Amino acid sequence: MRRFINVTITRRLLEDFGKRNMPSKRARRHFSQLSEFERGLIIGMKTAGWSTCRVAGQVDRSEVAVRNCWEQWTREGTHAWKTGSGATRKITRREDRRIVWQALVDPTVTRSTIRADVGVAIVPQTISRHLAEANLKSKCPFRALPLTPEHRQLRLQWCQARSIWNVTDW
């Protein structure tokens, strides 16, 4: 009875999932995580006896992602994301905001100045990453003002009018 219920639920989910507009080409989603919905679909289809290749094609994910999800389900009995993965944070969210705020207030501030003001031992790449996440990029000053043709003409006239001047006229 339980298998019948799982198959019925899986078929309904697949019908709903298949109604969406699926692109003809596979989207390249190398670093995107499986959503809870996709994880549930994978578990349901694999429980119903589908092959990994068939599930991967239906969910539009790689076979490796499907296999990893299924292995986690069979090993741990859950498909939830694991907490605590990745490096530990060196700075707090408040210090993140302070880094961005300093760059907004003074665009010429250096990374070493920001690091000294925050007061936490972090590498300059961390500061650059936080500024990039806030969509702040380094700005190169103009070497010369961008002039329109009209400005160039006026400058040329001004120089020609004063080209016959001597030192006393200047």
What report would you give on this structure?
- By secondary structure, this protein is mostly helical.
- The chain is built from eight helices and no strands.
- Helix 1 crosses helix 2 and helix 2 (about 35-45) packs across helix 4 (about 65-75).
- This is Transposable element Tc1 transposase.
- It is found in: Nucleus.
- Pfam families: HTH_Tnp_Tc3_2.
- Its main location: nucleus.
- It comes from Trichonephila clavipes.
Biggest β-sheet, characterized? Answer: none
Which descriptor suits the 3D outline? elongated
In terms of per-residue confidence, which ranges show pLDDT below 50 for 5 or more consecutive residues? none
Q: Supply the number of helical segments.
A: 8
Residue share in β-strands? under 5%
Written as H for each helix and E for each strand, in order along the chain, the element string is: HHHHHHHH
Distance between the termini: 102 Å
Radius of gyration: 30 Å
**Averaged pLDDT, please?**
79
Q: What percent of the residues sit in helical stretches (DSSP H or I)?
A: 55-70%
Structural class: mainly alpha
What's the number of extended β-strand segments? 0
